[in-house]
Amino acid sequence: MGWAVESIRGQHVETLNTQRPVGDLRPGDHAWLAYAHPDEQSRVLGDFVYSGLDAGEKIICVTDTLPRLLPGLLTRHEIDVTPFAEAGHLSVIPWNKACVLDGYCDPGQMAKTLEREIDKALDQKFNRVRITADMTWAAGLPGGSDFMLGCDHEVDSMVGPSTSVTAICQVDRRGCTPGALDALRSTHEVLVEVNPEYDDGVLKITRTYEPHGLRLEGEIDSARHAAFTHTLTSVSDPRSEVHLELGRLRFIDLGALNLIGTHAMRLTRGNGLVLDNPSPDLETVIQMVGFHRFPGITRGHGWRSQ
Amino acid sequence: VTGDTLVHRALLYGGEDEFLSAAVPFLQEGLGESDHVLAVVPPMNEIALRDMLGTDMNDVQFINSLDFYLHPVRTIAAYNDVVQGVAPRRLRALAEPNWQGRSALETSEWGRYEAIVNAAFSKSGAQVICPYDRRKISNQVLNGCMRTHPELLEGGYYPAYNNDYTVPEAYNSNVDRETLAAAPAGVDRFLIESADLSPVRAFITERATRRQMSPANLNNLLIAANEVATNAVTHGTPPIELMVWVHDGSLICEVADIGLWHPEDLVGFLPPETANSIGFGLWGARMLVDLIQVRAGFNGTRVRITTAL
């Protein structure tokens, strides 16, 4: 277990969780996704289910939707997974079938359902099983938080020791109270996030949803300008702010600063590009060349000077 | 005011009286015309000016020239910030660079600075007198002074046109023709073969760290060297070679290729309006390190970066 710094609403909060892109999840991971935007959900879940099917793994989704409407498959990967459901590669289990016992939602019952499904899958010669559970429906109900925590506890004790099962529990963070979010986060060792948009071992660019924008990690130089421009354009919207999280950016060249400046003026129509948590060195560089030479850029969180 | 012609005069003085008799009316005239009046002078001259100005001195902004003239490119940028900051008022400056204890190389760069003032502020309407203490300056300083100021004040109130004045572009390219000291034998060499410059940065980091360069200086050097290397990779002709050595308390990084580069006149010295302006890269690199020297000719292009250890 490692220490990760997660940027929540722009503030640095130290949590005892590991943040991991969905593509890096491994058997035994019981990961949590508190999504802030449907696109975030469809990227994480779509990639999770798609790559599982691709690898010939069994997929079990506990959710109240049709297989073909599972997030991110039709929209992001352009496949209708109905044939996979019919062939038994994918099971979509509605919540009332998964967890209702004597008319009540019961976490223990859900555990039994999952255990049964996992055993069945491993008997059918699947080597690996991926589970997703969408709990957003419970968030707004009385006792919903306790139910979610109960389910998480059950899933955790089932997945944690396993060498063949990976699970993602998801909830729409907009439907949860901050207290419930904190409690749920603390029960998950792994926080799952979208796969990076770009990663060449030197620079990693990842979409962020709260705040909306990109997180840059590593080093940017001219060999990476095209990738940077491409991803920056893909998240830009003249109507909304775009945040660049720079806390883990070790090097940025003047050309990329120039790109940021050009971009701020063109795509967000001024004052829409917010730089968060620049390193002290980067802040010094920006001061030396003059912050006024970057019209359209706003200082966000973590600046020493204002 | 913007659009008005720059006035850039040298005042060659041989004593305090001569200095005051030109400087005081110049500053007072500015106060009368509601200019922003700035006196960047050594402490001795500040004391003399304050005595003569009386209550007027409260309206004059004094800056110690020993703290102001530290880095030619940054000084141009600082004056540029002042000009823009006081607009629409006009800037009137008594500007006396510090020439004592400068090496020949430093004197040459500060001479270039005086030349570039003519281009950087040509349409600012700024009124500038640069006092030179004839008793203290070397011939090299005097030669530079004569070639970088369109008008001279040599006794008397009215300026004389200066026939030795050279346009800044010509002065600048003359400075860039001065011979660079040869790199010593046994320098560390690295062949730059790709636009992916992370190995170049690692190479410099390793050598700078071994010589205990401060992290802040190293960060600035990496950005400047990366910029110069990017320029060579983008516009130069391979082979492109980086050489690193230590000279006189500084780490020298030189990027050489065999291409013929015509550095656009003065680009890289004039403060760009924004980060999106042409020349931001080279200018930014110059801002971050102690010195960048460009030597371009038919036998290739060399760009030498000097950073204090």
Question: Secondary-structure map with pairings?
Answer:
The complex is a heterodimer of chains A (306) and B (309).
Chain A: E1 4-8, E2 11-15, E3 18-21, E4 30-35, H1 38-54, E5 58-62, H2 82-86, E6 90-93, H3 95-99, E7 100-101, E8 104-105, H4 107-123, E9 129-134, H5 136-139, H6 144-159, E10 165-172, H7 178-186, E11 190-193, E12 198-199, E13 203-209, E14 212-220, H8 225-235, E15 242-252, H9 254-266, E16 273-276, H10 280-289, E17 297-299
Parallel strand pairs in A: 3-11, 4-10, 4-11, 5-6, 5-9, 9-10, 14-15, 15-16, 16-17
Antiparallel strand pairs in A: 1-2, 7-8, 12-13, 13-14
Chain B: E1 7-13, H1 16-32, E2 36-41, H2 43-53, E3 60-64, H3 65-68, H4 72-86, E4 91-95, H5 104-120, E5 127-133, H6 139-148, E6 151-153, E7 160-161, H7 168-175, E8 188-192, H8 198-210, H9 215-235, E9 240-247, E10 250-257, H10 280-288, E11 291-297, E12 300-308
Parallel strand pairs in B: 1-5, 1-6, 2-3, 2-4, 4-5
Antiparallel strand pairs in B: 6-7, 8-9, 9-10, 10-12, 11-12
Helix pairs in contact in B: 1-2, 4-5, 5-6, 5-7, 8-9, 9-10
Could you give a short description of this structure?
The complex is a heterodimer of chains A (306) and B (309). Chain A is α/β, with parallel strands linked by helices and 306 residues long.
